[in-house]
Amino acid sequence: MPRQVATLSLAGVALQRAAPTPLHRQLYEALRAAILSGRLVGGARLPSTRTLAAELDVARLTVLNAFEQLLAEGYLETRPGAGTYVARVLPDTLLQAGRDVSQPPDGQATTARLSRRGAVLASTPAGVLVRAGVPRPFRLGTPALDAFPTALWGRLLVRHWQRGNPGLLGYAEPSGYRPLQEAIAGYLGVARAVRCRADQVLVVGGAQQALDLVARVLLDPGDAVWMEDPGYPGARGTLLGAGATLVPVPVDEEGLDVRAGRRLRPDARLAYVTPSHQFPLGVTMSLARRLALLDWAQQAGAWVLEDDYDSEYRYVGRPLAALQGLDPQGRVVYVGTFSKVLFPALRLACLVVPPDLIDAFTAARTLTLGQPPRLEQAVLATFIAEGHLGRHLRRMRTLYAERQAALLSAAGRHLDELLDVRPTETGLHTVAWLPDGADEEQAVAAAARLGVETRPLASYRLASRGRAGLVLGFVAVPPADLRLGVRRLAEALRQCGPT
After folding, report:
1. Residue 445 domain flag
2. 100 lies in a domain?
3. Which residue has the higher pLDDT, 380 or 495?
């Protein structure tokens, strides 16, 4: 019997009716290959299932089954009322995020010559820092965008726009929009016990820009920097890109081990810490360790870079005071971000610098980094001054506590003996521990194939070794999606089996 071939309008994709492979599987594999090869680019809109079924002369169920598998694995995404699209961030790309991109593929020599800083930045996998597109279960670093008061934000935006203030259309001040500096200084004083004046606050375009500015101003190539181990890859890449020599300092139940840091490199120029909610382990630095760290910084003439990325969200008691508020000598540079508090696309963060560094940071900011748009700064200033930020944070603490409870409840039902999911008192993620002998990378890969985003704990380590685990965000999606994610994660872990 001759083979009958139905050809898609997508070049190179065909279905073979006489082949032993089911038609829906053939279509799945053909579309997946077209996506991975780039013939179907990220963001491209696909025909409707009805249209595609008619073009292929197959049952619509065949197309639905293929689409459903591609959606589950993250190759496609749906937009309500708009259709089905090729995902902009592909699972296979994410699974290869740890590949050494400084090495050309297939042994080919590269013609591009990068600076040492450029090579380090290019080899830092961006997928470890941020993921785009519609959040899937356990995505890290993304707040509950579905619960953000968009209508209120829109009204404030229109209010400022309709006032017709020409100043909002010009270049922004190097240190930031003054009303926003004042609002941030007031907010940090009350909410985080940060001690600062408005002129110590620099408004920057996100936390990564803040880290980059600190590295430019305070570090010379070769300077030693204490780095929490495990710790945040974004800080690691920025500091390496600045030419710093990273000194991995272990983290225990009290946070960064200051004694170990003193033993390893007492002459370090800077220490990077996340004291209120250590990333990724989630521990809080004890008061004794905080005081010891400040004492070392004073004696060594070093700086402490405090990354206070999500400590507003504490579910037991009040948020803990920032390390900066304990600093009597002006050795702490504080970084706060609104990406986790409000929404990532806002791209606003703040640096609080000691008084004698204001001029240096302002000058460096003017020469090296562009200022965030004044309109967004003005809206945020009003959002804070009118009390909307405080109300939003209170709502989100309740919502996030509910979402964590949903995760823990579902984990108790479906992940018993597969994954030990621990509750957290602070922040937007938790660490879940795998059984002894489990393979983190295998677990992450299996989860990604089922549409679940996880991070292996090993990807945050420099020199430390420890129990295998996964880092799970629990706030980006509603409880129903979390419960579905837990079931899929359980299926993925069962597929991995014992090692």
Report:
1. yes
2. no
3. 380
Which single residue is written with the structure tokens 């179907």?
A: 40
- Of 320, 377, 331, nearest to 350 (Cα)? 377
Q: Are residues 157 and 143 in the same domain?
A: no
Helix (H, G, I), strand (E, B) or coil at 371: coil
Range of the domain at 429: 135-147+391-496
284 touches 426 (CB < 8 A): yes
Q: Mind listing the pLDDT tens digit for each residue in 312-333? A: 888 887 767 899 999 999 999 9
Mean pLDDT to the nearest integer, 407-421: 94
273: left (phi over 0), alpha (psi -120 to 50) or beta: beta
Residue 201 to residue 204: CA distance in whole angstroms: 9
d(C-alpha 333, C-alpha 361), whole Å: 11
User: Which residues fall within 8 angstroms of residue 465, CB to CB, at 6 or more apart?
Assistant: none
Beta-bridge mates of residue 470? 432, 456
Same domain, 324 and 395: no
224 and 273 in a common domain = yes
How would you classify residue 90: left for phi > 0, otherwise alpha for psi between -120 and 50, otherwise beta? beta
Number of domains present in the structure of the chain: 3
Phi-psi region of 112 (alpha: psi -120 to 50; beta: other; left: phi over 0): beta
Final residue of a structural domain among 368, 388, 408? 388
Residue 118 belongs to a domain: no
- Which 3 state secondary structure label does DSSP give 419? coil
Helix (H, G, I), strand (E, B) or coil at 271: strand
Residue 210 has pLDDT above 60, yes or no: yes
Domain endpoint, select from 373, 388, 403? 388
Both 275 and 325 in one domain: the answer is yes
pLDDT tens-digit map of 180-201: 999 999 999 998 999 999 999 9
Its pTM stands at 0.75
Which of left, alpha, beta for 193 (phi over 0: left; psi -120 to 50: alpha)?
Answer: left
Contact 270, 219 (CB under 8 A): yes
Amino acid identity for residue 406 in this structure: A
Q: What angle do CA 288, 290, 294 make, to 5 degrees?
A: 115
> For residue 130, is it within any domain?
no
399 and 378 share a domain?
Answer: no
